[in-house]
Design a protein that fits this description.
This protein is mainly alpha-helical. The chain has one domain. It has helices at 8-23, 26-33, 40-61, 64-69, 71-90, 94-107, 112-116, 119-140, 149-152, 155-160, 168-184, 189-201, 213-236, 274-286, 322-351, 356-371, 382-395, 397-401, 404-414, 419-423; strands at residues 253-257, 263-267, 300-301, 315-316. Helix 15 (322-351) runs parallel beside helix 17 (382-395). The protein is globular, with a radius of gyration of 21 Å.
């Protein structure tokens, strides 16, 4: 790993972590400071350069054999590029082009998964986040809304999977950051779930001698089937998992401050997803775009948010639910290809890994597939980036081949203090 530290591609890829982290809360920074932190003139070029950096890293650090293992992801990215190119012919106005570029930046972020297959690049990415991006969060606490805390700290969700073998004081530090997210805004349900699940999954490590691969594989298949079952039940009218307030008795409302600074009553069991499914499915039927989608240049018809459409078409550019965006932009073909990527990556991590950490990470990726039917908006932010870093770990032949001891040794290097810090101790 020390041999590549001065490699410009390595340095650039690692440095991207700081930009991606800040980009994830740029809108909130603009709201609180009045400065143009969310200006697309700044971020579009930076996002493009970040994607290029990961693409260049692919050619320099990823072997041909590794690329063959990742054929589902390569096919998905090719299909995404074709649909993005189609969007250039669909776009008519300035706002269409802005939507197209914004959406393309997000759905092309999976290119980061290739970099994560390389142990050296993955080492640099995680270290840069821990030692440079994470400290920046401390002053940001006073500048951004509490809802955004989980966005900036998203990568911790991946690290929580390895909690049992993270050095003690680092473990305390990372869990302390998680506690900030929990206590700052209990209404940030998505962030809390994405932190709690990996913290629960890490416990599997303590039972590694009694949990067989067959159990991992069974749980993996359940997680992939559950969204389809709930979708069928919801469409058929038998059971809607988003309407939990109809099945759970009690008052689960609280007074919170929203991102606009307004004091509102928030129902923690409130249904904020059913109408999104209805709008996207209606739009796909109305435009007959089931198969290949409408391209990333167009949104879905929305009676709830259509008045925000600058083109006056009554469309919403993107939704909070990742799978709905894929349906709208890439169609059922895109959903199937996305499912194959998730299934092959997580399944390979479970069945072809020599260590327990990558097997557990396979379950984490299967959970993220499941959660993509609830949220996980596919935009250019750290949350979506974390998903693809996890996918890269699962695809990586090198990470899969490591023993538990080898993986722990690699992880300990991630948390080792930089030399400049050691000199000051």
């Amino acid at each position: 790993m020390k041999l590549v530290v001065r490699n410009p591609i390595y340095v650039t890829t690692a440095a991207c972590m700081v930009l991606i982290s800040i980009s994830s809360v740029s809108t909130y920074l603009e709201q609180s400071t009045g400065l143009p932190f969310g200006n697309v003139v700044i971020w579009f070029p930076l996002h493009f350069l970040i994607l290029c950096a990961f693409l260049i890293a692919l050619s320099s650090f990823v072997s041909v054999g590794q690329l063959r293992l990742m054929w589902p992801l390569t096919l998905l990215l090719i299909y995404t590029l074709v649909n993005s190119f189609r969007g250039a012919f669909v776009a008519e106005t300035y706002w269409d082009w802005k939507i197209l570029i914004t959406n393309c930046m997000g759905i092309l972020l999976p290119v980061a998964a290739y970099a994560a297959t390389n142990t050296q690049l993955a080492w640099g990415i995680l270290r840069t986040y821990i030692f440079y991006a994470l400290p920046i969060f401390i002053p940001l606490i006073f500048l951004v809304h509490t809802t955004s805390y989980g966005f900036y700290l998203s990568l911790l969700g991946l690290l929580f999977v390895f909690t049992p073998v993270i050095p003690f004081w680092w473990r305390v530090t990372l869990i302390g950051f998680a506690a900030v997210v929990f206590l700052a805004d209990f209404g940030a349900r998505s962030s809390i779930i994405k932190f709690c699940v990996p913290l629960a999954l890490c416990c599997l490590y303590y039972f590694r001698r009694i949990i067989s691969i067959h159990i991992y594989w069974f749980v993996h298949k359940i997680l992939f089937v559950i969204p389809l079952v709930f979708l069928a039940l919801g469409v058929g009218g038998q059971f809607n998992i988003f309407k939990m307030d109809e099945y759970i008795q009690g008052d689960y409302t609280a007074v919170n401050q929203n991102s606009s600074g307004e004091i509102v009553d928030e129902n923690y069991l409130g249904d904020t997803r059913t109408f999104l499914y209805e709008e996207v499915l209606y739009s796909a039927s109305h435009f007959d775009s089931w198969m290949f989608g409408r391209s990333p240049a167009r949104g879905n018809l929305s009676s709830h948010f259509g008045d925000e459409d600058m083109n006056g078409r009554g469309e919403r550019a993107r939704n909070e639910v990742a799978i709905l965006n894929i349906v709208n932009w890439l169609g059922v073909v895109g959903v199937v290809m996305f499912a194959i990527v998730m299934f092959v990556a997580s399944g390979g991590a479970i069945n072809r890994s020599n260590n327990d950490f990558i097997r557990i990470l396979g379950i984490y990726v299967a959970f993220r597939w499941c959660f993509s039917w609830i949220e996980d908006i596919n935009t250019f932010n750290l949350n979506y980036f974390t998903l693809w870093i996890a996918v890269g770990f699962c695809f990586s032949s090198r990470f899969r081949s490591m023993s538990n001891a080898e993986f722990v040794s690699w992880l300990s290097e991630v948390f080792r203090l930089p030399k400049f810090a050691l000199r000051n101790i």
